């Protein structure tokens, strides 16, 4: 790890704290900045209920989802050797969306919807892997093509469900599809999974660095390429499934964040993985703060803002790479 890159993680930690503080202060009921942190510990504060019960759980869920998507995107870009790969490219979000929309049409509660989304994501993961593997081995190219086809099929089913859905269900279904943290009070499980995933993936950072240079190079240096590819696929799928279950489909975070960090800090995964978690979480906290304050008291789906912000950033990165 180059010494000049070491200040990056402390800067991202400061960005995370600043994003959290801003998110706690801004909303339909503004809280003065000097009263934000005291209200976290003082139950008698007039702002304690708003911060402790409403904003803090939602912001922690946003941080977890952003971190999960960014880390999953970094992994899939190595696995597929494709800088355009993102956590949704293999059809996991489509499977989760179909299952979640079916639960909504059935009139089930939020826990059933989340459970259905998780089951749909894992079902799609197994379907894509099984089809890509077939009767023999699988390759990243075959996995990518299979995922794109399965994602297109899920997209057709989603369109069908929206077309036949009753009017009173459409708003909730569309918000879920565009990414919605208004019901993101459950933050413990995704945040714990993010931390556990980073701990388990960190020992493989060197192997990820070698695989990014090519399978032949990695194999010649002692990396068990087949085992590592399988680990990356299932780890990225699990992280994506947890993110989709918590907040629906939130676009561009897993695509843009690894690009930004590779430009700023290179491709050393000892730094890239924790940095992706911090930057992805910070960006989604900022996006969620905007989503619930731009037209307050009404709220926007957070996925709309990540797309609006992420698309021009990604186009700028592509333009910069082409110029180089």
Short description:
With 324 residues, this protein is mostly helical. The protein is built from 14 helices and no strands.
Model description:
The structure is a single chain. The protein is 74% helix and 0% strand. The mean pLDDT is 87. It is built from 14 helices and no strands. With 324 residues, it is mostly helical. It has one domain: ABC transporter involved in vitamin B12 uptake, BtuC (Orthogonal Bundle).
SSE topology sketch:
Elements: H1 8-25, H2 36-41, H3 48-79, H4 92-105, H5 110-133, H6 140-164, H7 167-178, H8 188-201, H9 205-212, H10 215-220, H11 225-247, H12 253-265, H13 269-291, H14 302-323
Helix pairs in contact: 1-3, 1-13, 3-8, 3-11, 3-12, 3-13, 4-5, 4-6, 4-7, 4-11, 5-6, 5-11, 8-11, 12-13, 12-14, 13-14
Radius of gyration: 20 Å
Strand % is: under 5%
CATH topological fold name: ABC transporter involved in vitamin B12 uptake, BtuC
Helix percent reads over 70%
Which characteristics define this entry?
324 residues, mainly alpha, ABC transporter involved in vitamin B12 uptake, BtuC, 14 helices, globular
């Amino acid at each position: 790890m180059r010494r000049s890159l070491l200040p990056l993680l402390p800067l991202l930690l400061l960005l995370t704290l600043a994003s959290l503080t801003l998110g706690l202060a801004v909303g339909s009921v503004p809280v003065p900045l000097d009263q934000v942190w005291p209200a976290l510990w003082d139950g008698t504060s007039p702002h304690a209920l708003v911060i402790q019960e409403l904003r803090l759980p939602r912001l922690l869920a946003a941080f977890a989802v952003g971190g999960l998507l960014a880390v999953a995107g970094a992994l899939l870009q190595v696995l597929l050797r494709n800088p355009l790969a993102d956590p949704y490219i293999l059809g996991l979000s489509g499977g989760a969306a179909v299952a979640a929309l079916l639960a909504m049409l059935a009139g089930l509660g939020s826990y059933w919807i989340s459970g259905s989304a998780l089951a749909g994501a894992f079902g799609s993961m197994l379907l894509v892997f099984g089809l890509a593997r077939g009767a023999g081995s699988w390759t990243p190219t075959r996995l990518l093509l299979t995922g794109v086809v399965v994602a297109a099929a899920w997209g057709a089913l989603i369109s069908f469900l929206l077309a036949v859905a009753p009017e009173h269900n459409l708003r909730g279904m569309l918000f879920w599809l565009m990414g919605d943290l208004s019901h993101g009070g459950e933050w413990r499980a995704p945040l714990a999974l993010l931390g556990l995933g980073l701990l388990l993936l960190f020992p493989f950072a060197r192997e990820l660095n070698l695989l990014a240079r090519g399978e032949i190079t990695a194999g010649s240096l002692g990396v068990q390429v087949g085992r590592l590819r399988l680990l990356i696929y299932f780890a990225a799928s699990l992280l994506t499934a947890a993110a989709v279950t918590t907040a629906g489909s939130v676009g561009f975070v897993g695509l843009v964040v690894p690009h930004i960090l590779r430009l700023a800090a290179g491709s050393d995964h000892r730094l890239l993985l924790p940095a992706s978690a911090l930057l992805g979480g910070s960006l989604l906290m900022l996006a969620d703060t905007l989503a619930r304050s731009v037209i307050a008291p009404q709220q926007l789906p957070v996925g709309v803002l990540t797309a609006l912000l992420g698309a021009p950033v990604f186009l700028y990165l592509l333009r910069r790479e082409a110029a180089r």
